[in-house]
Amino acid sequence: MINVTGKYAQGLPDLHAIDDSGHFISIERAFTGLGFSISLFQVSLEGATDISNINSLLKTNINDIKPVQKKLLLDLRRLDVLLDNIEGLTLGPKLSDGQPSLILVSDNNFQSIQRTQFLAFRLKTESSLQRLLRRLNLRQN
Predict the structure, then answer these.
(1) Is residue 4 part of a domain?
(2) 113 three-class SS
(3) What pLDDT does 139 receive?
(4) Which has more confidence, 84 or 76?
(5) What is the pLDDT of the chain when averaged over all its residues?
(6) pLDDT above 90: percentage of residues in the chain
(7) Neighbours of 40 (CB within 10 A)
(8) Dihedral, CA atoms, 97, 71, 76, 121, nearest 10 degrees?
(9) Strands, DSSP E only, in 5-67?
(10) Does any domain span residue 59?
């Protein structure tokens, strides 16, 4: 069988809430056979269908379900870093500019061919007021 996606095993190893309004950061990763493909996404529940009371999605008209919104923040393959099995994330301490940091982590699974790895990033966030002004500006244009 030919694997046309180039991904042999993929999944969502971690999802972290970034506020109380249904916004998250997710890690999606895949093992490609030659290494790892890892991406960070911003996920929003805004406007998505609440499926918590649906007994079976197989018996539901899929056209009646609105999915979550997902936006690619970073494809880590674009970095000049040899990636390992990144599988965790957390918000770190605030940086000197007041923005939060984001910490990604892998462990070595007790294997000599793998390594424990920490990656740190600066998150650019906006306040509720900045978000409101941006939305008002978008509506005026």
Answers:
(1) no
(2) coil
(3) 62
(4) 76
(5) 85
(6) 45
(7) 20
(8) 10
(9) 9-17, 23-31, 36-44
(10) no
Cβ contact 85:109 at 8 Å: yes
Give the SS3 label for residue 134: helix
38 burial via Cβ count (<10 Å: 0-12, 13-18, 19+): buried
Cβ(39)–Cβ(74) under 8 Å?
yes
Let me know if residue 60 belongs to a domain.
no
Eight-state DSSP code of residue 132? H
The DSSP bridge partners found for residue 120 are 103
Say if pTM beats, i.e. exceeds, 0.90: no
Rg of the chain over CA atoms, in angstroms? Answer: 18
Whose CA is closest to 46, among 64, 28, 70?
A: 70
Q: What is the pLDDT of residues 6-54, one digit of tens each?
A: 556 788 999 999 888 899 999 998 887 777 889 999 999 999 999 999 9
Model confidence at 141, pLDDT cuts 50, 70, 90, reads low
Both tokens of residue 34? Answer: 């030659």
* Domain membership flag for residue 45: yes
Q: How many domains are contained in the chain?
A: 1
107: containing domain? 9-52+65-140
Burial group, residue 45, by CB count within 10 angstroms (0-12, 13-18, 19+): middle
